[in-house]
Amino acid sequence: MGTSNIISAKARLAEKIQIKETIAVFGAAVILPIIFHLLPNINGTPLGKYALPIFYAPFIAVLFFRFHTALIASLLAPLANYLITGNPAFEIVQLITLELTLFVAAAYLLKRLNRVKYAVAPLSYLLSTVAVYILTSTGVIGWQIKSGYLINSVTTALPGILILTLLNVVMIKSKQV
Q1: Taking the mean position of all CA atoms in its chain, how far away is CA 94?
Q2: What pLDDT does 7 receive?
Q3: What DSSP string describes 4-34?
Q4: Which residues, at least 6 apart from 59, have a Cβ–Cβ distance to it below 8 Å?
Q5: Cα–Cα distance between 81 and 26 in angstroms, integer?
Q6: Which of 8, 63, 74, 130 is the most buried (most CB within 10 A)?
Q7: What local confidence, expressed as pLDDT, does residue 31 receive?
Q8: What's the CA gap between 38 and 6, in Å, rounded?
Q9: Rg (CA), the chain
Q10: What are residue 42's DSSP bridge partners?
Q11: Would you give the distance in Å from CA 10 to the centre of its chain?
């Protein structure tokens, strides 16, 4: 195998793995929540809890890149944010990681259904939140969640769900252009 063939094979592999895209999505999934945590809290609650900024980059990755690009960000960004800023609180890093990973999986599956293409993000968020609630409240996962978790998660995150919905519509329309 000649040098040019090796270089060509490496380029094809890098394109398939989407290394640059994965790094960019991970970086955005870390930076966006940091920016939101720098803004003032609303009634003592961090703005990120309302706006869901950690979901934006992985969702865009689901729409435009390979699955692993979004998955890597969903698995690593909550811990990276904690290590850099101390947010989210360590007790909920695992919970957010699970919810974000389930969100990415749901979005990846739902994006294939043309009928719901403009609602993939909000549906994925709701499905992942319900799944986390079921997994934790039935004891499948040994974590304890507070009473009212499901209702509080959805009502607190309504602005973020709205932002995700807007992002969903804009990204789908830009993809079609």
Answers
A1: 13
A2: 62
A3: HHHHHHHHHHHHHHTHHHHHHHHHHHHHHHH
A4: 70, 103, 104, 107, 120, 121, 124, 164, 167, 168, 171
A5: 11
A6: 74
A7: 97
A8: 46
A9: 18
A10: 45
A11: 29
Structure tokens of 88? Answer: 């989210």
Tokens of 115: 């009928």
Percent with pLDDT over 90 in the chain? 63
**3-state class (DSSP) for residue 91:** helix
Residue at 50: amino acid letter: Y
Helices (H), the chain: 3-17, 19-38, 47-51, 56-64, 67-85, 90-110, 120-137, 149-156, 158-176
Amino acid symbol at 5? N
Query: What pLDDT, in 10s, does the model give residues 114-163?
Result: 899 999 999 999 999 999 988 888 877 777 676 777 888 899 999 999 99
Q: Is the pLDDT of residue 177 over 60?
A: no
Q: Report DSSP state, residue 43.
A: T
According to DSSP, residue 157 is labeled T
* pLDDT tens track for 32-41: 999 998 888 8
* Cα angle value 53/56/58 (rounded, 5°): 125
